[in-house]
Amino acid sequence: MSEKKYEKKITCIGAGYVGGPTMAMIAAKCPQYKVTVVDINKEKIKAWQTDQLPIFEPGLLEVVKSARDRNLFFSNEIDAAIDESEIIFVSVNTPTKMFGQGAGKTADLQYWEKTARDILRVAKSDKIIVEKSTLPVRTSVAMERILNANEKGIHFEVISNPEFLAEGTAVSDLESPDRVLVGSRETPPGLKARQEIVDIFANWVPAEKIITSDTWSSELSKLVANAFLAQRISSINSISALCERTEADISMVSKAIGSDRRIGAKFLNASVGFGGSCFKKDILNLVYICEYYGLPQVAEYWENVVKINQYQEERFVQNMINTMFNTIAGKRVALFGFAFKANTGDTRESPAIFITRKLVEEQADVVITDPQALSNAKEDLADIIQKVTLEPDPYKAALGAHAIAIITEWEEYKGLDYTKIFNVMEKPAFVFDGRNILQHKQIFDIGFNVYPIGKPGLSHL
Ligand code: UDX
Ligand code: UDX
What residue ranges do the domains of the chain occupy? Predict the structure, then answer.
């Protein structure tokens, strides 16, 4: 297709976990648009141009390949891409701010603001700027002020279009989302810009699943969705601690309460704790906003979701130490999984990071195995890397180990030959199942001492 034949030209700034897959799906579904994804990280852009994508996401390569070099382009030419596009999605990262006012809680918007200023510097015509990154409520006001304080006579309309995809299922989440949310100012130009964005998704998302709102509700909904999801996990995890004291079984409790349609069955799996780039960051952001607006009780309520998660991670390690006769110094401990969830190589905020550091502090000899996350693990543990071993083969990881701890719910860990593993481990051999994915009775019958989450332990001792 020659350049001028494209119906719309769309650029996305930020080729990460959100920007890359989202734009690939838009391009795949809408061959009539030109979609260009740019990033300051040249290596990442290069990787998007090959079959070794910079992120592991099931099914993504096929989507990318279906559109790449047809109407999907990955480029380092940020200015050129801004200049030619009428719609610019921004999905640069917004990490928790680690300095100054709001440190440890609010979002660090420096990349967002820098990107807005780049757009302003380059733009020669009116543009729609779409917030894809999760941002504190009312960020769009600041962005509008920065963007529209120009003397070029250019008008920018800022739209909020938060992304709800989950890693590991990004392709199906993008292909058939529960909903797409598009927020705008409710002025004539705001509504027109909103419609332009709605029109993109309407190419494949049914109309009733496209929700429109004012900008603030859209920005806030993203934070609240993540806070509610995380709250369910902290709720069930808090009850898992009680189950362990009372011989109740958390899986039964989850099933019993999840069968109530008002509660629902999803996000009730007790675990070693939630990780990922969003939950903690977004809740702390919500907490900060509540404090800022003078709502300390509301802030405290949500902050406890993060505190329970920290408690769950600590409890898991403490339980390992207590069970292994109060000392793990010099003992080999194999962590099965390092990613924050299955089907991703992403390790951001993974409970594995905290657990590894705690075990190393206790002078355990930690060996980590994971099918996708070992290169990220190496970076996360750079300062203590000489004290841990990274081993792609779980059987080799278990060799001579006193304990295995399941940290990530990889399907392949369910099907391993645990008799073979038991035979090469030190005795007594322990399994700590931080995801409740193993057949505990069977594993116990092999000879293991088994400690699930939220269920009584099975011990031969
Ligand atoms: C994450 C969260 O999922 C999202 O909700 C949050 O708002 C932003 O961070 P994600 O796509 O996972 O989004 O982040 P990441 O994979 O780190 O990608 C961000 C990309 O933006 C990186 O590739 C980075 O190089 C790029 N970037 C950052 C720029 O191109 N320009 C900048 O100025 C800063
Ligand atoms: C989340 C939201 O689901 C998504 O809508 C948003 O866009 C980004 O943040 P993500 O972090 O990729 O997505 O994965 P998610 O499936 O939500 O899992 C987050 C964490 O919770 C993982 O560590 C997962 O293992 C854990 N989890 C999830 C549980 O411990 N128990 C559960 O029942 C569900």
Answer: 3-205, 214-461
Name the token pair of 401. 């180990």
- The amino acid present at 172, given as its one-letter code, is S
| Nearest ligand to residue 109 Cα | 1
C-alpha to C-alpha distance for 387 and 367, rounded to whole angstroms: 9
Query: Ligand 2 center to residue 278 CA distance, Å?
Result: 8
Q: Which token pair is 328?
A: 């793990």
Is any atom of ligand 1 closer than 6 Å to the C-beta of 254?
A: no
**Upper half-sphere CA count for residue 32 (Cβ side, 13 Å):** 6
Phi and psi, residue 73, nearest 5° = -130, 140
Nearest CA to ligand 1 atom 8: 93
For the record, the structure tokens of 158 come out as 């800022």
- Same CATH topology for 3-205 and 214-461: the answer is yes
Burial tier of 292 (Cβ tally within 10 Å: 0-12, 13-18, 19+): middle
Q: Domain spanning 214-461: which CATH class is it, in words? A: alpha beta
Ligand 2 mutation target, pool 279, 309, 312, 407, most atoms within 8 A of CB: 279
Domain 3-205 class, CATH top level: alpha beta
Residue 91 CB-density burial (10 A; 0-12 exposed, 13-18 middle, 19+ buried): buried
pLDDT digits (tens, 9 = 90+) for 257-299: 999 999 999 999 999 999 999 999 999 999 999 999 999 999 9
Give the CA angle between residues 247, 251, 253 to the nearest 5°.
75
| Ligand 1 atom showing the smallest separation from residue 114 Cα | 33
| Contact of 321 with 333, CB cutoff 8 Å | no
Q: Is residue 17 lining ligand 1, measured as CB closer than 6 Å?
A: yes
Does residue 233's CB lie within 6 angstroms of at least one atom of ligand 2? yes
pLDDT at 96: 84
The structure tokens listed for 350 are 């993974």
State pTM to two decimals: 0.95
Residue 386 is encoded by which pair of tokens?
């000489």
Give residue 211's identity as a one-letter amino acid code: I
278 is annotated as an active-site residue: yes
- Give first-to-last CA distance, the chain, whole Å: 71
Residue 3: band (very low, low, confident or very high) from pLDDT cuts 50, 70, 90: low
| Tens-place pLDDT, residues 99-151 | 888 888 888 888 888 999 999 999 999 999 999 888 777 788 888 888 998 88
CB atoms within 10 A of CB 459: 13
Q: How many A from CA of 303 to the centre of ligand 2?
A: 18
Q: Is 165 in the pocket of ligand 2 (CB under 6 A)?
A: yes
Ligand 1 contacts CB of residue 54 (under 6 A): no
Instruction: For residue 295, give every residue at least 6 positions away whose Cβ sits within 8 Å of its Cβ, in sequence order, or none.
Output: none
